[in-house]
Structure formats: C-alpha cells, structure tokens
Amino acid sequence: MLCPYAELSGSQRVEWMTFIKGIFSRTSGFKIGILLVAAAVLFAACGGEPRIEVEPAAHDLGERAQEPIELFYTVHNVGGKPLRIEKVSTSCGCTRASIDREIIPPGESAQLRVTFDPTENNLYGNLLRVIYIRSNDPDHPEVEVEFRVTIRKPEDAGS
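The structure assignment produced for this chain is given below.
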C-alpha cells in the first residue's frame, strides 16, 4: 500500500485532519507553514491517477464442447482518482464483452462479462481470444486480458 491515506473513509480522513490540526494549533506560524506544505505533498501523492488492474489476466478454459461460453473478469481501480472505461473490444466477432459500469471510483471494482460463441463460425481446435480495455489510466491506457480454450470438433451429422 503506497498511500495509507487513500484507504481511509471520509469520516476517518476528517478525524485524521482534526487530530493533526489539534497538534499544530498550539504551534508557531512557521511550523504550521511546514505542516501545510507536508499535507499538500501528501494529498498530491495520495490523489494519484486512476490505475487499472484486471483479474485474472488470463483464463485457461481447457477442453469444451462447441457451445457458447460465458466468463468474467474483475476490473479494479487501485489508483487515487476515478477510472473511466472508455472502450471494451475483442479480437474476434464471435467474442463479446461488456462492463457493468464505466466509471470505477478509487478502491472499487467492476465486472467484465465475456461471451464466446464458437458455433457462429463453426470454430474448433485450440483458440485464443483477447479482450482490450481502454481507460483513462495514464500509464496503461489499454490493457489486454485473454482466454484460451480447446473446442472439440462437432460430430458430423451423417455419422
């Protein structure tokens, strides 16, 4: 945890600031000036930027029948400002992805729902699909998650 202040609730932050104010209320103006500079640095460091993390980074679904599959990823905002999901896209038309909310407050998460339908294009064999998540994270404006699956070849209707 880089910034313990960011983990505090609103009321805990008020209590912390009241405590600090009480300590320095009986001190000289010079000490108060130093405190204000230190507090500004702390708030700037703790405010930070939005930061995206997705779990898991990959799913290995093993071997499956040729039928629709649904899976989920959790998108976390581990930064100090709201994370805005700007776009979710996939590497193939047989794969669709949607997120349950586009703005994720600091310390919170959203669910990314992915559906894959190998019957659309009669897909089978070893397959890899990628989901792209574009956000306002300045360090990682686009992240990728993936899943792998082996789809069994469907039986011929005439056999």
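Interim note for the steering committee: The mean pLDDT is 83. Residues 4-47 form one domain.
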